[in-house]
Design goal:
Helix content: 40-55%
Number of strands: 11
Radius of gyration: 19 Å
Distance between the termini: 6 Å
Largest sheet: 9 strands, parallel
Order of helices and strands: EHEHEEHEHHEEEHEHEHEH
Shape: globular
Length: about 290
């Protein structure tokens, strides 16, 4: 099993003036510890399950560009970009730029969006759920077109119309940056994974429920004529080894149960990440064990 570090919280000691140095330290330490990838949320307000909306939140793609400059190996992506936040043509240009400047390490993490408050707060249209899913599918189609060899063409969709999908320089990742569709919706989200994505990301839940979600994905793959084994199965969870590592063994056991359910990559926030020591503990006591699962 591979592990990815998500960084969803930036209200750290020292305030905004210390955010850059601390984030750089976290990114470098995580890469040295053996994390496979680094992820940030694509939100503009802090989300309710993490903290108050007014807490510090960094813009995702600027942050990933900064992290790219601090690292050399780890994959880089958002968990997850809401399709509503950026026009798909601009989004694919942003991810392509990240891929080029990072040496081919970018992921496109994308979903249908859900946080209405930040849409209303910042004046971003928030269509009904059905329309958001229609837009998500069109965005995935645009991504594949812009990352294809024949990318200088038009795109005519219900919600998006692009006269020229020029994308130069083209991404370094081959055949294109990896696409992750986030969410556990069984009728639409997992169908889009089967049709367009390289990876799914389902919410943290018990192993039995994770296994059931993957069974639904397998059924969608059969209907789409897609090889289920081609899709990387990931979950988002919380990582807690304790400030002194006393919970590392318990966390490894948790990862083992997820691996038995079919999880190949676990991505999550690490409790106490700003103190750096938990990252080092992960590198010594968890990541080597997870690699054997």
């Amino acid at each position: 099993m591979k592990l990815g570090l998500q960084i969803p919280y930036f209200t750290w000691p020292g305030g905004p003036a210390e955010l850059g140095p601390k984030l750089g330290e976290i990114a470098r330490t995580a890469e040295s510890a053996g994390y496979d990838s680094l992820w940030v949320m694509d939100h503009h307000f802090q989300i309710p399950m993490v903290g108050a909306a007014e807490l510090d939140m960094l813009e995702a793609y600027t942050t990933l560009g900064f992290i790219a400059g601090q690292t050399s190996r780890v994959g880089l992506g958002t968990l997850i970009t809401g399709v509503t936040y950026r026009h798909p043509g601009i989004l694919i240009k942003e991810v392509t730029t990240l891929d080029v400047l990072s040496g081919g390490r970018a992921w496109l993490g994308i979903g249908a969006a859900w946080f209405e408050r930040e849409h209303l707060g910042l004046g971003v249209p928030f269509p009904p759920l059905r329309e958001r899913f229609e837009r998500l599918e069109e965005a995935l189609q645009i991504a594949n077109q812009m990352w294809s060899d024949d990318n200088n063409g038009a795109f005519e969709g219900k919600h998006y119309k692009l006269a020229e999908t020029i994308n130069s320089p083209q991404a370094l990742s081959k055949p294109r940056p990896r696409i992750m569709v986030g969410g556990g919706g069984e009728k639409k989200t997992l169908r889009l994974v089967a049709r367009y994505a390289d990876a799914c990301n389902v919410p943290g839940m018990g192993p039995d429920e994770v296994r059931r979600k993957f069974d639904v994905l397998r059924q969608h793959c059969e209907r789409e004529g897609r090889n289920y084994d081609e899709i990387q199965k990931t979950v988002i969870t919380v990582m807690n080894v304790g400030p002194d590592g006393s919970m590392a063994g318990q966390f490894v056991d948790q990862l083992g149960r997820l691996a038995e359910a079919g999880v190949q990559t676990a991505i999550g926030a690490l409790i106490g990440v700003e103190n750096v020591k938990p990252i080092e503990i992960m590198g010594k006591e968890v990541i080597p064990q997870a690699a054997k699962l």
